[in-house]
Design brief:
This protein is an alpha+beta fold and 171 residues long. The protein is 37% helix and 22% strand.
Length: 171
């Protein structure tokens, strides 16, 4: 059985190797080749953003349920002692269109060995409950136009899939 919990990135007292490995896997699945040092640099930047007065991104971790009951209070230690099944990384944002806060899910990734076992659904269920309890207006994310498995997961969870043009400028 899967259990999901959240923690602000700033509460991670260290980078659990399982998280570094799973994030690196997610980045590689997206066509990047960051290596361990670059993956750690990116995670540390997220972890330390709040300490610099910036946003405090949120992690949602999926692990085996039995490990949560016996695990430590430190979220990094809990992830470190667990088989990390998946994670989501998100930011709370404010939108003028909705007149309130919403959650932007930057990444949602399930470990290869845990796919098709309901882990992604468990993460989304948890995120829904978490966001509703904070009176957020909506949830948003992007997924690849060819990523049919993710689109099926999101549609099954009540998300609308629309065609958009992603616009970015690298600085």
């Amino acid at each position: 059985m899967t259990s999901v919990f959240f923690t602000p990135a700033s509460r991670l007292t260290f980078l659990p190797p399982a998280l570094v490995n799973l994030v690196r896997q997610q980045l590689e699945d997206d066509g990047l080749k960051p290596g361990e040092a670059e993956t750690e640099r990116r995670l540390n930047a997220a972890r330390l953003a709040a300490a610099d007065g910036g946003p405090d991104p949120v992690f949602f971790f999926a692990i085996d349920q039995e490990l949560v009951a016996e695990g430590p209070d430190d979220p990094a230690e809990l992830v470190n002692r667990s088989d990390l099944l998946g994670f989501a990384f998100a930011n709370v944002c404010f939108g003028l269109e909705c007149g309130g806060t919403y959650l932007w899910i930057n990444e949602l990734h399930v470990a290869g060995h845990a796919r098709r076992r309901g882990v992604g659904k468990s993460i989304l269920d948890y995120i829904d409950t978490w966001a509703r309890s904070r009176d957020m207006a909506y949830l948003a994310c992007l997924t690849g136009s060819e990523n049919r498995a993710a689109q099926t997961l999101y549609r099954g969870h009540g998300y609308d899939i629309s065609r958009v043009n992603w616009v970015e400028k690298i600085l």
